[in-house]
Amino acid sequence: MEPDSDGEGFFTRLADFSLRHRRGVLLVAGLLTVFAAVFGSSATKYLSAGGTDATTEQSVQAADILQSQFHTGDANLLIVVQARHGSVNDLAVTRAGEVLTQRLARQHFVINVQSYWSLGDVGALANKNHTQALIVGRVLGDQGQIVAREPAIAAAFAKVPDSVRIQIGGFASSFHEIEVLVERGLITAELVAIPITFILLLMIYGSVVAALLPVGIGGMAVVGTLLILRLLASFTLVSVFAENLTTALGLGLAIDYSLFLVTRYREELAAGQSSAEAIRRTVSSAGRTVTGSSLTVAAALASLMVFPVPILRSFGYAGVAVALLSGLSALVVLPALLGVLGTRVNAGTVWRRSILSRDEGFWSSTARRVMKHPVVVVIGVMAFLAVLAGPFLGLNLGANDDRVLPPGSSARLVDDTVTRDVGEGQMQQIDVVVPTLFEPAGSVARTEVIDRYASELSHLAGVHYVSASTGVFIGGLHLPAPTAYLSQFDNARGTWLSVVPDNNTLNRGGRDLVTAIRNSPAPGVVLVGGVPAEFVDSTGVISHDIPYVLLLIGLISFLVLLLMFRSVVIALQGLVLSAVSLSAMFGAMVWVFQDGHLSNLLDFTATGSISATTPILMFCVAFGLSMDYEVFLISRIKELRDAGADTATAVAVGLQRTGRIITAAALLISVVFLGQVLSGISSVKLFGLGVSLAVLMDAFVVRGLLVPAVMKLAGRANWWVPKSLPARAARPSLGRPTPVRPTAVAMFTDENLQPVGAMN
């Protein structure tokens, strides 16, 4: 082989290492994979169904003070008690309600149990016709502990008095069902996506052995990442939703990288190279591309760690781990596998097809037609994407509630019942914490201060009632309540009040109510918490940090592309076109999931909003995958350019040689992500469908049409190198330059496209 540049020399040495020690590499990789599969498969038990709040938020500080100073917090377990006959005020139903209230209070890890009956028939805890009433309590612990403790608590109510029927719900039950559905959805997605993926790979390769390689590499990356998530969960909160990202992205990236490497390897074999030489050439030429791609994807997802929100950081942990493991497995383990297989990589042939890539075909002719009318293509494609992106202008950020669960789930049924008959705000109370009051405890002055403040809050628009240490306030009306209930709101140092809204507060109305409470005159320093305040705070934190995250993603991606291709124009083009390819995804996200189109087909409930964490996650994942295809395509174009082809020839032949691989990879990865649509969680459906659409639009529209048009318009500027870059950096090769075949030269001799040698 000819001498390599420094980068290529490293990848050649890496290939030699995998070849020389192929059995050892495979043995170590196999043992590590088995270890990761055994210990990483139980990762779900250690992950959390929550993690949407930053520790610096006012609402989190309020929750901490409620726990430490008042030994209480939001009610997260709710029991709907329905009278089989008559009213909840009937003697038999009253006795049953009291028994069930006491039973819940006796459960381990349950505190602050109250009910319609224990509070002296407070009307706010019953529906209007008094056929249903509520029992509420708080399950102690973090979200992981709550999920673990909820089933045992629910089991204590398997038998109830004959006079009533019950349903158990609330956030504790919702957390538990979300965790169960996520785990079940992962299994379903894998059972559906993996066989379909294998069939598609078999159609692409025509060989059983070749088709199995990407699936095996993907499996290694996925189980390795699950083990990392389990280990991280021992030190910090990791969201259970990170598993969905791990499975989909791990299989997708591994398929991308394996498809790229195995296709190149088979081409080298078909060209007459020995197995060892084919592996060296493959890793030498494609190693830098795979490395650059995995680093770009990892960088895009690493930016999520900037957010102080645990769920986004969890996605960052998973994304970085799975991207790097996918790249490492493809560059180290896959060459070792190919070294063992040799020409048997084509074993199990089910149908024969040409392995050598052609310089003339559908993609090259498409590129030629595009480059004849680049301005028209750019304007047309951009207009098309703008139309698809249009609905995104109506984006309404919200928060996930019980409606992410399928309508038939038990927790969802309870919450729907409470929403319809009692009031949505019962599960979304706002905690108003006044940690320090200067008036002495029990004094008349203190009572007057609390009464006045509670009365003022009860008059705010959107408030159902306010509970304080001096009573219950409804529209300024002061109602008495049992001392046992009121005592939880006050201690020697301070006080707190519970504001129960009269409707769903996880929308703009909720933001307005939280803001109104925070702006109301208060008897001292006030911290506002509870679910609605958590939504306001987390949305604010994310919105504040988004510009920095986007800037970080753009800067890192630009530097990676600049170092790989030594071209400012190519780097900028990659950023802009990758961002453009996401427009359709964001428009579809709003049109389908916020506005509710296709809700019946996809079996979800539209809420009129999108969770604040979802758009940034989808952007990072889709952007990383888009850059993946950018690197694949430009790498081949750069090879041809270095071999002496003019820009037009390099673009057309490069697209022809990579178009089939890129579109095949996009189809495969879209199948993997579409598997997430089978999940019972609507936010997971949104993620899977949105990313799939973004990938397909990027591969077929942006890479197939926009890239040739933009590069034709840029001409010689595509390869402009700043003088500040080192001289050696101006002439890199992303691999052994692949000569342009004579047939390719003949194709580009019309008046619009110059022949080889006539450099733009």
Structure explained in plain terms:
With 760 residues, this protein is α+β, with helices and mostly antiparallel strands. It folds into three domains: 6-48 and 176-393 and 537-744, Multidrug efflux transporter AcrB transmembrane fold, CATH 1.20.1640; 77-169, 2-Layer Sandwich (Alpha-Beta Plaits), CATH 3.30.70; 413-536, 2-Layer Sandwich (Alpha-Beta Plaits), CATH 3.30.70. The chain contains 24 helices and twelve strands. It has helices at residues 6-20, 22-40, 58-69, 91-105, 143-155, 171-205, 208-232, 242-270, 275-302, 310-341, 362-372, 374-389, 410-421, 444-458, 483-486, 508-519, 531-565, 568-580, 583-594, 599-602, 613-642, 647-674, 682-714, 742-747, and strands at 77-83, 110-115, 132-139, 164-169, 397-398, 430-434, 463-468, 471-474, 477-479, 495-501, 527-530, 610-611. It has a six-stranded antiparallel beta sheet, with helices on both faces. Strands 2-3-1-4 form a four-stranded antiparallel beta sheet, with helices on both faces. Helix 7 (208-232) runs antiparallel to helix 10 and helix 9 packs antiparallel against helix 21. The chain is elongated, with a radius of gyration of 30 Å. The two termini are 30 Å apart.
